[in-house]
């Protein structure tokens, strides 16, 4: 049994690594495809970059739903939302240094994520996520993003000042990367379900506590890289935006294709714990003028507390 566990852990790690590197490749070309636009960096972070770095979770959602493993989808999506808003956002000032916070943007996006998690908890209380439930979650992402976008200053600097060339070519490169994201996610989902069976642990917990760390690696890379380059709006926008995407699009895209059955008790509790953790993160950041090592360590402590509770 020990050998089988090691084997499937290796398969899971390999699948996630393929998905992570492929998603990073796709994100780079998606950003180039968007070159020359006047979209503010924070909006780029919460839309193009956050969806791009969430490709492993999105692919996982589709594969898990189609193969009938709803708890894997829910556990990974909710777990990733928690990891990105606590651990990754907490590591940012420790690695890239302290920086001032745009409290209004953080509060709006954080509130939208908490609301989406609570909506998801209510929808999963009956033990399933239907296509109608998926439409509600996707609609909440569209509405939340639109409201946040409208509230941003109109004079924000563009992310890329020079217009990109060969836009169609960049798009094709991004699509090619997406294919490998799907292949990696398929292998990882199969490994997660096998590990849950071998270890006699609920699939939700394996996905929440373990798989979410793997699928959140793209956010870690993008957030830290953006922070080191002084693109703090992009970094925070990606970390919080990815959490919002995970609690809406990532959670819903699979059930939109193939409705799923979930373990209601653990899914609801997990969503409520995640909502409470992210709400606390938003409160901490709203009380500070700068995101520094104190708030960073506090966010990491919240991450550890969530794992201890589950």
Secondary-structure topology with pairs:
Blueprint: H1 2-33, H2 41-53, H3 55-66, H4 70-96, E1 99-100, H5 103-124, E2 128-129, H6 131-150, H7 167-199, H8 203-215, H9 217-228, H10 232-257, E3 260-261, H11 264-287, E4 290-291, H12 293-309
Antiparallel strand pairs: 1-4, 2-3
Helix pairs in contact: 1-2, 1-7, 1-9, 2-10, 3-4, 3-7, 3-10, 4-8, 4-9, 4-10, 4-11, 4-12, 5-6, 5-10, 5-11, 6-10, 7-8, 9-10, 11-12
Write up this protein.
- The structure is a single chain.
- This protein is mainly alpha-helical and 310 residues long.
- Helix content is 81%, strand content 3%.
- The chain is built from 12 helices and 4 strands.
- The two termini are 25 Å apart.
Question: Features of this protein?
Answer:
310 residues, mainly alpha, two-stranded antiparallel ribbon, two-stranded antiparallel sheet, 4 strands, 81% helix, 3% strand, globular
